[in-house]
């Protein structure tokens, strides 16, 4: 038991049928339809291996993409093949989720065998529950097709999908209502890393918040500063630009137009409120870079610029590096600039290296941030690399994660088997 949640240490699984909800939702190549990377698949291997080695009959449930915009909503067949390659053991796949074919395949499993069912988001009930904010009662969850058909076949449910922990849907919270339930190894690892930067950070604790998802950055900033988890927030990316604008420096037409086009204008007022509440705990850039046929730097006196701001400048980078080097805890989310292009990669490359070199405990999360870390070859030197994006942001913003609540409720109810 950890943080009120049962773990695999609380259960014996040999000979049992175990449903494992993994998050192997992966980026998909538009042209080929193939997996762009198998990061999340790899991260779920330890729990799957542990269960199979212990003689469990392992039934894997997962989603890919979503029906809201039909983005990446594809079959999990290639995920099964990749799992089999990485595990070096067969992984069955069936193009069914909870129909008669799936039920028969689950019943036919033998100890140590693995089966991946198809994309749970092919079921309306799986998506409408979070897209339309329909909150089913525990009784209704137990009656969804997925839970009603599969739960009676299983002895244990394992939730390994921290990255989807913010979704209140049958595959994520329904089984915990009717089956003994444990969190998987990755789930606990990720939960522990995020709790360490939010609830029990060693101080000084620094959050580096960049990127263009201002709503996420601001809600995390508000939460971690008001609860005293963070001592300083280093702003960069579009987040830093909005702070600079709110503090009275015009950026120039191209950058201000971008902020408007992205619907971020209301955040200028919000930034003023954060500034009034937390003042010098929120650090904003003192210079920027533009791409004028190559990198050119401007300090705040050189603004407004008729070029788009594409990165933080070297004075800002140097200041941030110093703060990062002295921090005992560092959390990073959102790149400092357009790191994909040479003229604007400097800020992200140097800050990410500073985090990797810092003696403090570091956590990095979010798709772009992790991709930048991989590009600059620093991920191995970070304290913890999160697989989650939305779940992580909500956790750090102090919002309830439905999957954590479900796991705790199951632990309260359950007697370890
Ligand atoms: C993710 O990619 O962040 C998780 O798989 C959750 O996906 P979702 O945001 O579509 O629920």
Give a structural overview.
By secondary structure, the chain is an alpha/beta fold. It has 2 domains: 8-184 and 400-416, Phosphoglycerate kinase, N-terminal domain (Rossmann fold, 3-Layer(aba) Sandwich), CATH 3.40.50; 203-359, Phosphoglycerate kinase, N-terminal domain (Rossmann fold), CATH 3.40.50.1260. Helices cover 42% and strands 14% of the residues. The protein has helices at 39-43, 45-53, 77-87, 100-107, 124-131, 138-143, 145-150, 170-178, 185-198, 214-226, 237-246, 253-261, 266-278, 314-326, 346-357, 367-375, 390-396, 402-413; strands at residues 17-21, 57-61, 92-94, 114-117, 156-159, 181-183, 205-209, 232-235, 282-283, 287-291, 295-299, 309-312, 329-333, 361-364, 384-385. A 6-stranded parallel sheet has the order 3-4-2-1-5-6, sandwiched between helices. The longest helix has 14 residues, at 185-198. The two termini are 13 Å apart. The model has no long low-confidence stretch (mean pLDDT 95). Bound molecules: 3-phosphoglyceric acid (3PG). 3-phosphoglyceric acid (3PG) binds at residues 23, 25, 66, 163-164, 167, 389-390.
């Amino acid at each position: 038991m950890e943080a009120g949640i049962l773990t695999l240490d609380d259960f014996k699984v040999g000979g049992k049928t175990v449903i494992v909800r993994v998050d192997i939702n992966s980026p998909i190549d538009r042209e080929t339809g193939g997996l762009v990377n198998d990061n999340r698949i790899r991260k779920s291997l330890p729990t799957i291996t542990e269960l199979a080695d212990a003689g469990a009959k392992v039934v894997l449930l997962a989603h890919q993409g979503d029906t809201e915009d039909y983005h990446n909503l594809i079959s999990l067949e290639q995920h099964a093949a990749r799992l089999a390659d990485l595990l070096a053991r067969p992984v069955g796949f069936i193009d069914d989720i909870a129909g008669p074919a799936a039920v028969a395949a689950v019943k036919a499993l033998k100890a140590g065998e693995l089966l991946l069912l198809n994309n749970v988001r092919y079921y309306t009930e799986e998506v409408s529950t979070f897209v339309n904010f329909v909150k089913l009662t525990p009784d209704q969850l137990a009656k969804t097709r997925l839970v009603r058909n599969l739960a009676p076949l299983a002895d244990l449910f394992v939730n390994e999908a921290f990255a989807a922990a913010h979704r209140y849907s049958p595959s994520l919270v329904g089984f915990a209502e009717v089956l003994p339930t444990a969190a998987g190894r990755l789930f606990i690892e990720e939960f522990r890393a995020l709790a360490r930067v939010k609830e029990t950070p060693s101080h000084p604790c620094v959050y580096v918040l960049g990127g263009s998802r201002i709503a996420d950055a601001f809600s995390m900033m508000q939460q971690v500063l008001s609860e005293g988890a963070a001592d300083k927030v280093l702003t960069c990316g579009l987040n830093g630009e909005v702070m600079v604008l709110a503090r009275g420096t015009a950026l120039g037409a191209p950058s201000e137009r971008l902020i408007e086009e992205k619907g971020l204008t209301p955040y200028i007022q919000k930034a003023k409120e954060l500034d009034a509440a937390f003042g010098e705990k929120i650090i904003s850039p003192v210079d920027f870079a533009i791409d004028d046929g190559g990198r050119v730097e401007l300090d705040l006196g050189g603004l407004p610029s008729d070029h788009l701001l594409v990165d933080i400048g070297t004075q800002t980078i140097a200041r941030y590096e110093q703060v990062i080097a002295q921090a005992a805890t560092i959390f990073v989310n959102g790149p400092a600039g357009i790191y994909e292009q040479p003229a604007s990669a400097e800020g992200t490359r140097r800050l990410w290296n500073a985090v990797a070199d810092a003696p403090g405990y570091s956590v990095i999360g979010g798709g772009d941030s992790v991709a930048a870390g991989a590009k600059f070859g620093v991920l191995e030197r970070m304290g913890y690399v999160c697989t989650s994006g939305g779940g992580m942001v909500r956790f750090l913003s102090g919002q309830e994660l439905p999957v954590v609540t479900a796991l705790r409720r199951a632990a309260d109810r359950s007697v370890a088997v």
